[in-house]
Amino acid sequence: MQNAALAAGAAVARPAAMAAASDHYARLLQLCQTAVNPSAGRAIHAHAFKAGLLVSAYLCNNLLSYYAGASVSGGSFRDARNLFNEIPPVRRNVFTWNTLLSMYAKSGRLVDARAMFDEMPERDAVSWTVMIVGLNRAGRFWEAVKTFVDMVGEGLAPTQFTLTNVLSSCAATEASGIGRKVHSFVVKLGLSSCVPVANSVLNMYGKFGDAETATAVFERMPVHSVSSWNAMVSLYARQESVEA
């Protein structure tokens, strides 16, 4: 009876101990991420593997974040991809997929990013935003706008970061009709007073040459940053140049 009780107690304690150990390794990885030292990450990975801790989705995701961060900073993409492939599909969650997706997008590997995005069994607002930001930064503005339209069609609410990037794409393509619809969406979401978003709206109308709407947006802003003033100065300078 006593042996059975001890065995039962050990069985209960083991998962708790493994969870604590997984958390410890995850914290070490988070500390190592800023150092971008692949050998340190691999050492932690090896220790975690020997300890049988790679059954933890939390630890696997932290390992993947480490390798993905190292890849973006000049490390090997293979390390991150190999680890992703080693994680059983049942233990992959949307964070797992987003980590690899972000790695490809930040590195400008948009073909790989698109393939990963299309393969995802589930996408959240972060997934869509990563694609939109990557496309916008790569100068693929129409694709960024289309991806935003698809995101809204899926019923997902964009973040401030999503909106600043799609507004930038609308400005670059001078897609006035879509840009104005995005602005209406900003108002509907109650983000008109968000300075980064409002500045993106200002810049967009500046590119459209719509001084009247830009001025109205500027006057409704509760706070003006340096970027806000610069956008208005650039708009009026551009208009004076055209009139001259």
From TrEMBL:
InterPro entries: PPR_At4g14850-like_plant, PPR_rpt, TPR-like_helical_dom_sf. It holds the Pfam family PPR_1. One of its GO terms (molecular function) is RNA binding. PPR repeats lie at residues 93-127. GO terms for biological process: RNA modification. Gene3D superfamilies: Tetratricopeptide repeat domain. The keyword Transmembrane helix does not apply. Transmembrane segments: none annotated. PROSITE patterns: PPR. Keywords: Repeat, Transit peptide. This is Pentatricopeptide repeat-containing protein. It comes from Panicum miliaceum.
